[in-house]
């Protein structure tokens, strides 16, 4: 799971998508595309954004819920909490030399 997480975070476009979901959670694909274009000058096709969202979903950073014909995307920070805890929590002292 960590490999997918780091792969997802490695791409700057995906990080911008996460920033947008942090600012306004529960966006449709159309809304995300519009915000990327107007706020960041990223004119990606809906298919390209959808592929980025699929990588983020695989990493567990985004969840989606359907309402009728619309799919709304939500940020999930739990995978990041595991990484932060792993590196910021001091390890117990090792016994022996």
Walk me through the structure.
The protein has 97 residues and is α+β, with helices and mostly antiparallel strands. It has five helices and three strands; from the N terminus they run ααβααββα. The chain has a three-stranded antiparallel sheet. It starts with a helix and ends in a 9-residue tail after the last helix.
Compressed to H and E, one letter per element, the order equals HHEHHEEH
Name the helicity range.
55-70%
Q: Give the CA-CA distance, first to last residue.
A: 33 Å
- The total of beta strands comes to 3
Count up the helices. Answer: 5
Quaternary state of this entry equals single chain
**Biggest sheet architecture:** 3 strands, antiparallel
Strand content: 5-15%
Mean pLDDT: 93
- Which shape, going by the Cα principal axes? elongated
The low-pLDDT segments are: none
Strand sequence of the main sheet, in spatial order? 1-3-2
Q: Which structural class do you get from the secondary structure elements? A: alpha+beta
Radius of gyration: 16 Å
Give a brief rundown of this model.
By secondary structure, the protein is an alpha+beta fold. It has helices at residues 2-10, 12-23, 29-40, 46-58, 78-88; strands at residues 27-28, 62-67, 70-75.
């Amino acid at each position: 799971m960590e490999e997918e997480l780091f792969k997802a975070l490695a791409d700057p476009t995906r990080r911008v998508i996460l920033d947008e979901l942090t600012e306004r959670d529960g966006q449709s694909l159309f809304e995300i595309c519009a915000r990327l274009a107007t706020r960041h000058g990223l004119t990606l096709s809906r298919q390209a954004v959808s592929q980025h969202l699929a990588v983020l979903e695989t990493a567990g950073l985004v969840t989606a819920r359907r309402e009728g014909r619309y799919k709304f995307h939500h940020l999930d920070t739990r995978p990041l909490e595991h990484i932060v805890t792993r590196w910021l929590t001091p390890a117990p002292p090792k016994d022996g030399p």
